[in-house]
Backbone:
């Protein structure tokens, strides 16, 4: 199934895919391939579904693959941000049902998307066949991290107009390089979106309640015993190099390895795989082959 774009939404018309109405809002979804379990990508904050297009296309060669934008992000309608994990998980569950994409699903969750994937698995355990965690949010983050890196020590402030004007100018070459081999009809609106003030502000707003997301997940039922591969990006991106010393970067990586090893050990069929040269914000572009292999492996385990 491969939806075509529709017009007249708050988020505008996407270059591919289409919109589905869920709870009064139009949500962007693009699916390709056939068969199941379907693989569903949950982007990180400041990311959108089409950021994972190349991996999506590879996955669609062996099963149904789904990209989407949460409410308030990308080409989906605007909503108040931040939101609870329960709201986002219920929204995704309804979207997949409305789009006719049957469960169970293999969830591929990057960064903040991990909070919503884990809550989805708590709320709809029968609809989750596996999880690939791409350096994803965990309710146990603070347990494994140094005190200076706890969730309540790294608040995000919404950038003002001067900051976003500067960021737009500085980030445009970065995004053009990032999506250089995307088709032009997708690359141009994707870059334009990423350097827009709206996308920048909404990305910051969306990750503004991480301590509440942590507490929400901790209060929920146990995570289901499903196949899981957790991956950590051990390369330092520009923001980390600017804000963290070499000592802190070393501590961060050691802590991430402990966290994602513990995540893998929490299920019967779990595995931790490091990505030594990948960076957090671009890991899907830095290590696509390794990520595709992990998705294929979890998909195969989920069908046995």
Residues:
């Amino acid at each position: 199934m491969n939806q075509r774009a529709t017009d007249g939404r708050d988020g505008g018309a996407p270059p591919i895919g289409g919109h589905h109405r869920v709870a009064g809002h139009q949500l962007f979804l693009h699916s390709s391939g056939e068969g199941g379990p379907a693989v569903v990508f949950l982007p990180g904050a400041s990311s959108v579904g089409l950021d994972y297009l190349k991996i999506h296309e590879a996955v669609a060669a062996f099963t149904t693959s789904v990209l989407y934008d949460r409410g308030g992000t990308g080409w989906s309608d605007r909503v108040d941000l931040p939101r609870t994990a329960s709201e986002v998980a219920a929204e995704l569950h309804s979207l997949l049902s409305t789009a006719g994409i049957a469960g169970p699903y293999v969830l591929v969750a990057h960064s903040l998307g991990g909070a919503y994937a884990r809550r989805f698995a708590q709320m709809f355990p029968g609809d989750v066949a596996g999880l690939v965690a791409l350096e994803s949010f965990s309710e146990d983050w603070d347990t494994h991290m140094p005190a200076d890196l706890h969730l309540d020590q790294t608040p995000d402030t919404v950038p003002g107009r001067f900051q976003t004007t500067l960021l737009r100018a500085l980030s445009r070459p970065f995004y053009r390089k990032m999506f250089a081999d995307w088709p032009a009809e997708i690359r141009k609106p994707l870059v334009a979106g990423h350097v827009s003030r709206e996308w920048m502000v909404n990305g910051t707003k969306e990750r503004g309640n991480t301590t509440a997301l942590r507490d929400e997940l901790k209060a929920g039922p146990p995570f289901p015993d499903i196949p899981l591969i957790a991956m950590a990006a051990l390369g330092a991106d520009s923001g980390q190099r600017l804000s963290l010393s070499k000592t802190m970067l070393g501590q961060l990586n050691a802590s991430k390895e402990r966290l994602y090893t513990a995540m893998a050990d929490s299920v019967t069929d779990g595995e931790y795989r490091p990505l030594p040269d990948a960076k957090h914000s671009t890991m899907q572009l830095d290590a696509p082959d390794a990520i595709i292999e992990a998705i294929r492996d979890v998909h195969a385990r989920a069908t046995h």
